[in-house]
Each structure stands twice: as C-alpha cells, then as structure tokens.
C-alpha cells in the first residue's frame, strides 16, 4: 500500500518499472522528469494522477512514501540526499550506478543508514529468471566444480544518451550488472583486473 513517486520518464521507467508496478498492483501516485512534457506523456500512458514540475517537488510531496529514482548517476546523489531529509519518505530505489565514484556511493549508503531509511540499488540482472535458475543448478552440484565463468556482451548501450558525457560507458552502465551477477553466482572476488579501450562503433569519445 506504500505510495510510489517516480523520478524519470525514460525507457527504464516507462517500459519496465511502471509495467511491473501495474502488474503487481503497486500504487504509483506521482511522476516527474527533467522535462514536464516527458513526465506528462508517461503519466497519461500509465494513469499516474500527479505530474510535478521538478524531481525536487515530487520528493517534497507528502503523498509520496517511496521514491523510484531513474536518473543520470551524476544527478542522483543530490536527489537522494533531498529525499533522505524528508520525513514522509520511507525508502529510495536508485538506478545503477548509484554514483560515479565508490567514495560517493559509500557516503550515500552511510547517510541513508543514519537517516534510518532504506536505500536500494536496482541491480536487476541477478533477479533475471535465467540467473536464478543458473544459481539453482550451480548450488545443486549438477555442473560439478566450476573453474571458469564468462559473461560476453556485444551490444552498444545506446539508449541512455547521458552516458556520452562520462569518462566511461560500459563500465558505468552494464559492467556493474555483470560484476554483481558474478558475485551472486560465485561470491565476492578476491581481486579484479580491468582492461579497457574505446569502442570503435561509438560516434563519441
């Protein structure tokens, strides 16, 4: 029965989160985005009763109890901190990556704990049906002693144009999923090595 306010009206929110909330019967009471026009379009599609002019106004709406934040990671920390200051906000779901540095993410974690509010990051790959079943198969011992695992991804994550402004593309956007699902399947790593280069298929640096 907790009332959800959605910040963001892009593909993830419009095609995934709001569809899931409707199917689950979770009440979404308000939406805001970087532009009111985008928020209004998504609100009309999903029958959301209130559209706010800014994310900050939505966060201040006392009718909202849970914030679903699907916003660029350089803008998320300020909105999370604004939500943590609101007495009526019980929990925040943020998109990955939570922030653009580990240090900032740790600060947000600690600030949420101090405020007594739940701050969760949408690491949804580990909840994909294929990953859940793979975990069951591994845990059953059916695959024996696993000595090697690999995730290959060949897509260009073109659907979030704000990524073009950051100093890394796949690491910030998709590799967080891959690392998380490997942790889910095999536990925390002792060491990580990363090799990168520019993707020649992209039209930006």
Q: What's the CATH C level of the largest domain?
A: Alpha Beta
Strands, count = 6
By DSSP (H or I, 4+ residues per run), the number of helices equals 8
Count of separate structural domains: 2
Shape assignment: globular
- Strand proportion, as a percent range, falls in 5-15%
Q: Uncertain regions: pLDDT < 50 for 5+ in a row?
A: none
Name the helicity range.
40-55%
- What is the SS-derived class? alpha/beta
What is the CATH topology assignment of the largest domain?
A: Rossmann fold
Mean pLDDT: 93
Terminal Cα separation, in Å? 45 Å
Specify Rg, calculated over alpha carbons: 19 Å
CATH superfamily of the largest domain: NAD(P)-binding Rossmann-like Domain
Major beta sheet summary: 6 strands, parallel
Strand order of the largest sheet: 3-2-1-4-5-6
List keywords for this structure.
2 domains; 205 residues; Rossmann fold; 6 strands
Describe the fold and architecture:
The chain has 205 residues and is of the alpha/beta class. It has 2 domains: 4-122, NAD(P)-binding Rossmann-like Domain (Rossmann fold, 3-Layer(aba) Sandwich); 125-186, no CATH class. The protein is 40% helix and 11% strand. It is built from 8 helices and 6 strands. It has helices at 11-24, 36-46, 55-60, 76-84, 102-115, 129-140, 170-173, 175-186; strands at 4-7, 28-32, 50-51, 66-69, 91-94, 118-121. A 6-stranded parallel beta sheet has the order 3-2-1-4-5-6, with helices on both faces. Helix 4 packs parallel to helix 5. The N and C termini lie far apart (45 Å). The model has no long low-confidence stretch (mean pLDDT 93).
């Amino acid at each position: 029965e907790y009332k959800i306010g959605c910040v963001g009206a892009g593909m993830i929110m419009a095609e995934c989160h709001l569809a899931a909330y409707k199917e689950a019967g979770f009440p979404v009471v308000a939406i805001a985005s970087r532009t009111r026009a985008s928020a209004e379009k998504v609100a009309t599609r999903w029958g959301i009763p209130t559209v706010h002019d800014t994310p900050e106004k939505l966060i201040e709406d006392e009718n909202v109890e849970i914030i679903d934040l699907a916003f660029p990671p350089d803008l998320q920390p300020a909105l999370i901190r604004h939500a943590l200051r609101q007495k009526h906000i019980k929990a925040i779901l943020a998109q990955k990556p939570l922030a653009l540095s580990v240090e900032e993410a740790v600060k947000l974690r600690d600030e949420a704990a101090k405020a007594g509010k739940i701050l969760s990051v949408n690491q949804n790959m580990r909840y994909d049906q294929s990953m859940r079943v793979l975990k069951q198969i591994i845990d059953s011992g059916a695959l024996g002693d696993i000595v090697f695992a690999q995730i290959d991804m060949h897509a260009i994550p073109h659907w979030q144009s704000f990524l073009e402004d950051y100093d890394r593309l796949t690491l910030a956007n998709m590799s967080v999923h891959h690392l998380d699902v490997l942790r889910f399947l095999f536990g925390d790593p002792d060491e990580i090595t990363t090799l990168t280069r520019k993707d020649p298929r992209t039209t930006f640096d």
